[in-house]
Prior knowledge:
Blueprint: H1 2-18, H2 21-43, H3 53-83, H4 85-90, H5 96-116, H6 131-156, H7 165-178, H8 191-198, H9 201-214, H10 221-244
Helix pairs in contact: 1-5, 2-3, 3-5, 3-6, 3-7, 3-9, 5-6, 5-10, 6-9, 6-10, 9-10
Amino acid sequence: MMLRVLLPLVWLELKRYWLNPLRIVLSLAQPLMYLFILGAGLAGGTYALDSSYQAYIYPGIVAMALMFAAASAAVGVVHDRQVGVFKALLVSPLPRSTLALARILSGAVLALVQSVLLLPFAPLLGLAFTPLSLLCFLLAMSLCALVFSALGLVMALPFRSVMVFPVVSNTLTLPMFLLSGALYPLELAPRWLQLLARINPAAYAVDLLRGVQSGHFQYGLTTAVGVLLLIGLLAIGWVVRSLHGRGGRV
């Protein structure tokens, strides 16, 4: 029963995505600018790294793409509330938990699809994936996509205006990215910034992706995966509860 509901809803979101080719191009623009323009500009005068600076920030840029794509997908929830689609789903006999999981999964799939488009650029930075390392990297990306999608819904459900939510979303996601260590090693950052990073979900996502890709972890594989799983479960629980309570009313 759950799969029969989940798959059509996820497929609907994917169809919306592929029907807008401009969205595909624009989704690549920001991460590629960070990777090739900002990365090239900072490469000559930044941290002493074993590899090139652009190769170092690559996992962080992938994490950024996942986070911003998941937040963008969450805007669809606010839009559906405005046009009445969300109300029709909420008054249907489908369990609210199934609807919540469908939204989270569809957002995660969209974020993953957009971010996978960055993988062909890795060889240009001197990064080589073996089949096993690529599989591990994709699994890490999938976990991050699920967590960011759930967090995107946590941010989106209280809002009813597509004009307001993107402003709030950008206000929250940009500091998360800047405090994640995507662009610099956290061990070289000031102590106060390291403390802020410890309560930042994006920092653990960057650490997981960078550790899987390079073998160097800031917090450790077990810690990164464990924190992301905990945050993801808490966010999913909040979304399900919101759909059962005041947050799910339209």
